[in-house]
């Protein structure tokens, strides 16, 4: 009986193989080639509109790169020390993910370097605050975005004066004095600067006027007359004014922890107990 079952199984397999062979021989393979004389006149924008928007550009990846000129030219034995000094200055503006120090055949630096930040915002901030930075008596930094070189190369020969921008005022800096019930405002900092709330001291319960996350890195302070709201950041101090608390001005002073206004709010003093390790006398 066992032998018969094996023979039946082999016979069944043979029939299946034969049937598959017949099917493969009868069905023709599909032909995806274009007919003779076919012209594809459909643009890629119509077929791949959404995909082409995500196509990488030639400038992708270089918006976060800055070029620092005026760097000291040192030998191979002092390059690591130079990198340490440069890093302390530029790491204040964000995370540096890549750095390149061109060297000559003898191993000496050429006086300029390339730094890449993790974000284009950090790169723009570094250019704004370190351009014309005086490292010492002999070296002053000239800092530019890497993309600026292409922009300056493509300047048209025929110059056209820019159109004047419409005037945008700061609004009424003393709008709070027009409060009909003369309610005061007060600020609350939640956590370690994770959130800042501005409240109106209305009755019977205070009412929330404004709330922003990560508005300050430490604490906040009102000016003596209540015109300005000062917030503290790693790069310096920012002042906010008006009914919507729009940014008025920024003052660059790394690690500033204390400030003081003049009684008439015409002057501002900032103080950093840590100081700048590269300029102890500053």
UniProtKB/TrEMBL annotation:
Classify the source by domain of life. Eukaryota
- Residues of the RRM domain: 64-148
Q: Which GO terms describe its cellular component?
A: eukaryotic translation initiation factor 3 complex
- What molecular function does GO assign, one term? translation initiation factor activity
Q: What is its main location?
A: cytoplasm
Where is the chain membrane-spanning?
Answer: none
List the Pfam families.
RRM_1 (PF00076)
Q: Which UniProt keywords apply?
A: Cytoplasm, Initiation factor, Protein biosynthesis, Repeat, RNA-binding, WD repeat
Record carries keyword Cytoplasm: yes
Q: Where is this region: Disordered?
A: 1-40
Which SUPFAM superfamilies does this one have? Answer: RNA-binding domain, RBD, WD40 repeat-like
Localization: Cytoplasm
> Which stretches are annotated as coiled coil?
none
Ranges of biased composition (kind: Basic and acidic residues):
1-10
User: RNA-binding: present as a keyword of the record?
Assistant: yes
Question: How does this polypeptide assemble, per the annotation?
Answer: Component of the eukaryotic translation initiation factor 3 (eIF-3) complex. The eIF-3 complex interacts with pix. Interacts with mxt.
Q: What is this protein called?
A: RRM domain-containing protein
């Amino acid at each position: 009986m066992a032998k018969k079952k094996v023979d039946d199984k082999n016979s069944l397999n043979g029939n299946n193989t034969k049937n598959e062979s017949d099917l493969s021989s009868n069905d023709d393979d599909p032909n995806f080639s274009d007919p003779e004389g076919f012209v594809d006149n459909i643009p890629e924008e119509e077929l791949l509109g959404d995909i082409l928007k995500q196509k990488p550009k030639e400038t992708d990846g270089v918006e976060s790169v800055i070029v620092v000129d005026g760097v000291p030219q040192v030998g191979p034995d002092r390059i690591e020390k130079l990198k340490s000094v440069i890093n302390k200055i530029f790491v204040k503006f964000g995370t540096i993910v890549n750095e390149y120090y061109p060297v000559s055949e003898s191993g000496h630096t050429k006086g300029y370097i390339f730094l890449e930040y993790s974000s284009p915002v950090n790169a723009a901030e570094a250019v704004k605050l370190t351009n014309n930075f005086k490292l010492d008596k002999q070296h002053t930094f000239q800092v530019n975005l890497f993309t600026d070189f292409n922009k300056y190369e493509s300047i048209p020969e025929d110059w056209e004066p820019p159109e004047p921008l419409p005037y945008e005022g700061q609004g009424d800096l003393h709008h709070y004095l027009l409060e009909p019930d003369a309610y005061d405002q007060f600020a609350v900092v939640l956590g370690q600067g994770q959130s800042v709330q501005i409240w109106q001291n209305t009755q019977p319960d205070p009412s929330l006027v404004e709330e922003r996350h990560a508005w300050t890195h430490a604490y906040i302070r009102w000016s003596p007359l209540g015109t300005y709201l000062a917030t503290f950041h790693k790069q310096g101090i920012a002042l906010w004014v008006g009914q919507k608390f729009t940014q008025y001005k920024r003052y660059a002073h790394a690690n500033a922890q204390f400030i003081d206004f003049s009684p008439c709010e015409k002057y501002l003093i900032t103080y950093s107990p840590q100081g700048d390790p590269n300029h102890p006398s500053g």
